[in-house]
Each structure stands twice: as structure tokens, then as C-alpha cells.
């Protein structure tokens, strides 16, 4: 299998504590930081227009999180659970296939 | 039990050795240096096993290394003074926030400028809000006992907080005195190996420490520390009592009371100056003054309940502060007064700023303070709330 093709990160469960007693004694995150859904912080969301995409994967390489993955069909997609909306992908895309859209929450 | 004639600093080093510390990271600073020198000597002579000494390039790194070591489950120790402690400040928050029971000896030294290496409590008291427990030692024996108890208290399952054991620059650190040290087997029984809350070396269950606390979660972790501090009061009393039963020196009181049962005037203070005060109390008693001494051993957690019990039965409290919070008053005075505000105990309280920057406090000074307090109580009115006692007028 072509190692270039990634999967969306394993689905993690967001840790929600209802009462103070449910919290661990020390500020540790069990498992990994996967449960830390940094996508909450986003104001602008990247939207990929596949008709303009030339599959150069520059967005995938540049994403610092990395919140961009490559689907089986070769196009890139955004994992919105972790995309902070930094806009690097949109800035770097040579064909301007990615636009940053203000997100309605 | 073996007795040794050691300086306060060597007492601290021996206590760390006897507590079987596994990691020591420190940077030399006067007057702390000889603690670390002695520990290095133990390692060089092959007197200790499983002790890793980490030479670092600053106090900030020393505390960072201790945090890393403690997070893997090791028993970590360091020591510092004044400017070094100030440089550690950021990391002190980290140690307490991550709930790591590191033990540190701070040799109280005045902050610069002017450059000073002499005794002053402002350096450690400036760290009071970091979440560290603070123990103030009166003599070399208390430095030794304090370090051993600090590990047991800090590592207690209900506490998990770092502890600072504080001694006076030169008055204790470089002055030799007889220190009674229990046998290693007895200490091992008192202080078993640490059972950490979590260890970074648990590769089967990976986790991240202190990653990010959003407004949704940060608050609860702070509450947990506040609760652990309250629990620490009970643990301190238990461990202090156990220490007394095992080794003959009882530390079950967070405030050590000396001849306060029928006292009208009580001198309150912390650390080495209370030795002088006790001596003065004995002499004043012979002169017919009903005086006593209350030595605050633990400044964090603050012994509110014990202070209230004391204040109910006395007419005046002279708080001797070897420290000052600029723009306000002596720090112990400020805390003690605050505790009593919502109670019905309202003794007359006066703040004497003494001994700052190593200025000597003599028995005659304490006698003069007693006379001043006596006058105030007779008049029923304070002449002034804060007195800079030694000021050249």
C-alpha cells in the first residue's frame, strides 16, 4: 500500500468531567493528546475545492498539526477535530484550491 | 542513636542521604553550596547507591531536572538560596501543579541589592503562593528532622505536593551543632520507598502531563491543590506524631508553643530567631513577665486553627518578622492578623521587623520588645502597628 495515503486519526473520545471528583488528581491526560480536540479553537475553516486540486500534497506537508490527511481517492481532506484554522494550507496551495471560510458555530 | 556534630547544611545533606534520594540536581549558591558539596562527597566516596547527581547550569534547570526525575517516580532533592530560589520561581509552580513531591532545602538569604548573603526570610516567603509546603527550622536538628518528614508528608497519597525546608543562612547553615541521626534501618521503616501518583516510565499506559487546561478544566485542578493543602495539615500532625514516637522528637504541633499556658504576651515568629526568643522568655519569666513563645513551624499550609486556639487566651501577640512585604507589613503578621479577623479572638497584635539581612536579634532586644508590649497592653492601645526595631534613629 502506498504509504502516502493516510487515515484520519483514530477517533478519540473527548474527555468530559462532570464533577470535580471525576478529575484525575494531577493534570495528566490519559491516553494521548488525541482527546484534546484543538479544532474547538478555530475561527476560519479551510474548505478544499477538489476541482482545483492537483494532488501536489503541499497542504498535507505544511500542516503543522497535522490535521490534513490523504483520502483513498488521492484528494486531501481536513480533520476538523484538530484543525486550528491557521490557514497555512490555504496560503501555500499553488492552485488556490483551499479557501478559509468563517465558521458558524 | 548516632550523634554527629554537623552544620545545618551537612544536616540537610545527611537527611537527604538517609532518605535515600535518587536524584539530586542543584546549582551552587552561597550559603547553600556545602549541602551539595556534601552530597557530591557521598557519591564520590561510594557511600550512596542509586543516587544520580545532575550538574545543571542554573537553578531554573535544577528544578526542571527535579521535576523530570520526580515525574518518573524518583525521589528528587535540591537546595538553593535567595536569588537562586527566585530564578526557580516559574518551575516551583510547575512542581506543585504537576503534584510532584520534590523536597528542597532553601537556605534563607536576603535578596539583592544591596548584595547580601545573610539571613532573611523574604526569599522563601515570596514563594508562598506556589503551592509548596513550607517548614521553618529553628536549629540543625530541625533541619535534619524536617527533611526526613518532608519526604513522608509530600509523598503521602493525600498530599502529593512539594515541600520546602527552610533554614537560616550562616546562623544554621554554617554553624555546627549536635544532631541526633537515627539508624538507617529505623529511617527506612519510617520512610518506605515512594509510591508515585503516576510515572512517566509507565510505557503500557502512556499519557501527557500538564498539557493544556482550558477554562473548562483548569479551575478544578487548582481546587485539588487547595484540598491537598488542607489534607496536608492532618498528614503533618500524623507524621509529626509518628516521628516523635519513633525518634523521640515530637512535631505534631504546627505551631510549637513554649510556656504559653498562662502567658499574657506571646512572641510569634519563625526559624532560628525563635531560639533566642525562648532564651529571652526564660529570663523574662524570672523577672515576673508572663510571656511565652509560639514558633510557627509550618507556614504553608498555615496553621489557622492552632493560631486561633493560642490567640483566644492571650492579651498581646508580638509578631517578629525577619521579612517584609513592601507596601504592607511583615508577612507572618499579615497572615496571622488575617486569620483572626473573622474570629472572636482579638489580642493586641504588633509587628516588629527584626533581623532583616542578617541583623542580630539579641536576648536584650526581645526583653525590650516585651517591655514595649507590656506598656501597650496596659494602655490598651497600639503606639504603632509596625516597628522597624533596629532602625538607627
UniProtKB/TrEMBL annotation, chain A:
Residues 44-73, 74-103 form the 4Fe-4S ferredoxin-type domain. It comes from the Archaea. Its cofactor is [4Fe-4S] cluster. The keyword Thylakoid does not apply. InterPro entries: 4Fe4S_Fe-S-bd, 4Fe4S_Fe_S_CS, PorD_KorD. Keywords: 4Fe-4S, Electron transport, Iron, Iron-sulfur, Metal-binding, Oxidoreductase, Repeat, Transport. One of its GO terms (molecular function) is metal ion binding. It is an enzyme of class 1 (oxidoreductase). Its EC number is 1.2.7.7. Heterotetramer of one alpha, one beta, one delta and one gamma chain. NCBIfam families: PorD_KorD (TIGR02179), PRK09623.1 (NF007202). This is 2-ketoisovalerate ferredoxin oxidoreductase subunit delta. The gene is vorD.
UniProtKB/TrEMBL annotation, chain B:
GO terms for biological process: carboxylic acid metabolic process; response to oxidative stress; sulfur compound biosynthetic process. One of its GO terms (molecular function) is oxidoreductase activity, acting on the aldehyde or oxo group of donors. Residues 15-240 form the Pyruvate flavodoxin/ferredoxin oxidoreductase pyrimidine binding domain. CDD domains: TPP_PYR_PFOR_IOR-alpha_like. Residues 263-366 form the Pyruvate:ferredoxin oxidoreductase core domain. InterPro entries: PFOR_II, Pyruvate:ferred/Flavod_OxRd, Pyrv_Fd/Flavodoxin_OxRdtase_N, THDP-binding, Transketo_C/PFOR_II. Keywords: Oxidoreductase. Heterotetramer of one alpha, one beta, one delta and one gamma chain. This is 2-ketoisovalerate ferredoxin oxidoreductase subunit alpha. It comes from Thermococcus litoralis (strain ATCC 51850 / DSM 5473 / JCM 8560 / NS-C).
Amino acid at each position: 500500500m502506498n504509504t502516502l495515503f493516510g487515515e484520519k486519526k483514530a477517533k478519540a473520545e473527548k474527555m468530559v468531567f462532570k464533577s470535580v471528583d471525576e478529575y484525575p488528581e494531577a493534570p495528566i491526560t490519559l491516553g494521548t493528546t488525541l482527546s484534546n480536540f484543538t479544532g474547538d479553537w478555530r475561527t476560519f475553516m479551510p474548505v478544499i475545492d477538489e476541482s482545483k486540486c492537483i494532488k501536489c500534497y503541499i497542504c498535507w506537508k505544511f500542516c503543522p498539526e497535522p490535521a490534513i490527511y490523504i483520502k483513498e481517492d488521492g484528494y486531501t481532506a481536513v480533520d476538523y477535530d484538530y484543525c486550528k484554522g491557521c490557514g497555512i494550507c490555504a496560503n501555500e496551495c499553488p492552485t488556490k484550491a483551499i479557501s478559509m471560510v468563517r465558521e458558524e458555530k | 542513636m548516632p550523634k554527629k556534630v554537623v552544620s545545618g547544611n551537612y544536616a540537610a545533606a545527611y537527611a537527604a542521604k538517609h532518605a535515600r534520594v535518587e536524584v539530586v540536581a542543584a546549582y551552587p549558591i552561597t550559603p547553600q553550596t556545602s549541602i551539595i558539596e556534601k552530597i557530591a562527597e557521598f557519591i564520590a566516596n561510594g557511600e550512596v547507591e542509586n543516587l544520580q547527581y545532575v550538574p545543571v547550569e542554573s537553578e531554573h534547570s535544577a528544578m526542571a531536572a527535579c521535576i523530570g526525575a520526580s515525574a518518573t517516580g524518583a525521589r528528587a532533592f535540591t537546595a538553593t538560596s535567595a536569588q537562586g530560589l527566585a530564578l526557580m520561581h516559574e518551575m516551583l509552580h510547575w512542581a506543585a501543579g504537576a503534584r510532584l513531591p520534590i523536597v528542597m532545602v532553601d537556605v534563607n538569604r536576603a535578596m539583592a541589592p544591596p548584595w547580601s548573603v545573610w539571613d532573611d526570610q523574604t526569599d522563601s516567603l515570596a514563594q508562598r503562593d506556589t503551592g509548596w509546603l513550607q517548614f521553618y527550622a529553628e536549629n540543625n536538628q530541625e533541619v535534619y528532622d524536617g527533611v526526613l518528614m518532608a519526604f513522608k508528608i509530600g509523598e503521602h497519597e493525600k498530599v502529593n505536593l512539594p515541600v520546602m525546608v527552610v533554614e537560616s543562612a550562616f546562623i544554621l547553615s554554617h554553624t555546627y551543632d549536635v544532631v541526633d541521626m537515627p539508624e538507617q534501618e529505623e529511617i527506612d521503616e519510617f520512610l518506605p520507598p515512594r509510591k508515585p501518583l503516576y510515572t512517566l516510565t509507565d510505557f503500557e499506559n502512556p499519557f501527557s502531563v500538564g498539557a493544556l487546561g482550558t477554562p473548562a478544566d483548569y479551575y478544578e485542578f487548582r481546587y485539588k491543590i487547595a484540598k491537598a493543602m488542607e489534607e496536608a495539615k492532618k498528614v503533618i500532625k500524623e507524621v509529626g506524631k509518628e516521628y516523635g514516637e519513633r525518634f523521640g522528637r515530637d512535631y505534631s504541633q504546627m505551631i510549637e508553643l513554649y510556656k504559653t499556658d498562662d502567658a499574657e504576651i506571646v512572641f510569634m515568629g519563625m526559624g532560628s530567631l525563635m531560639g533566642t526568643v525562648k532564651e529571652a522568655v526564660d529570663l523574662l519569666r524570672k523577672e515576673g513577665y508572663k510571656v511565652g513563645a509560639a514558633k510557627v513551624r509550618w507556614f504553608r499550609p498555615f496553621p489557622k486553627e492552632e493560631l486561633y486556639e493560642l490567640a483566644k487566651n492571650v492579651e498581646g501577640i508580638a509578631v517578629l518578622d525577619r521579612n517584609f512585604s513592601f507596601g504592607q507589613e511583615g508577612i507572618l503578621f499579615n497572615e496571622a492578623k488575617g486569620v483572626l479577623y473573622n474570629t472572636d479572638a482579638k489580642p493586641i497584635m504588633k509587628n516588629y521587623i527584626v533581623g532583616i539581612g542578617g541583623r542580630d536579634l539579641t536576648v536584650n532586644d526581645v526583653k525590650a520588645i516585651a517591655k514595649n508590649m507590656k506598656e501597650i497592653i496596659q494602655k490598651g492601645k497600639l503606639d504603632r502597628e509596625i516597628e522597624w526595631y533596629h532602625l538607627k534613629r
